Amino acid sequence: MSSTLCCPLCISEHAKSLPVAGKHYYRCLDCELVWLDRADYLDEAAEKAVYDGHDNRVDDPRYRTFLMRAFGEVLARVPLPACGLDFGCGPGPALIAMATEAGYQMAGYDKFYADFPELLTRQYDFITSTEVIEHIAEPRAVLNKLWDCLKPGGVLVLQTQRVLGDERFKNWRYRHDPTHIVFFAEASFQVLAARWQAELSFPHADVAVLQKGTP
Description:
Layout: E1 2-3, E2 15-20, E3 23-28, E4 34-36, H1 44-52, H2 61-77, E5 83-87, H3 94-101, E6 105-109, E7 124-130, H4 139-148, E8 150-159, H5 166-170, E9 182-183, H6 186-196, E10 199-204, E11 207-211
Parallel strand pairs: 5-6, 5-7, 7-8
Antiparallel strand pairs: 1-2, 2-3, 3-4, 4-9, 8-11, 10-11
Helix pairs in contact: 2-3
């Protein structure tokens, strides 16, 4: 059954209804993004309560190892000196600490914990966003904004688990987090790369890197 709902990433109206466990999801037939119907969203207070329960400590070695899948791409691609932004840094900005220790300058933005909108008007050599974009109701607008904040040659590193088909989605543990409302597929990032004329790579199963061209 087709849906006339507009995909929040590519604006296609070719979408398929994907009901799962009493919730209403849709899958874009063009970019393969899956998104949750807004009627099934948590309110902001309940959403923040989930984040407040996360134990992402700056000095946790396991958390740092997890973040290194994204930050390692910065180390490999962005020479010092350089300035970056961690979008969705959360209350315990471990990635910013890792970047500072490596000699980078880095700021952090988060709508709940570091809401400094002026940071989204500046230019950066790199932007990271780890386990964040699956929480964003308007991914097209937000990702376009981040792309505009990148300097020529800059890199955008996005860490999120990728959806792998309808049947696997229905039984996917990642879907069970009530704050996860948008799920990217490999094709979703390919659509972004084509729109931005960016170089795209997938260094890990949950990391996508998009590099901006130079004039």
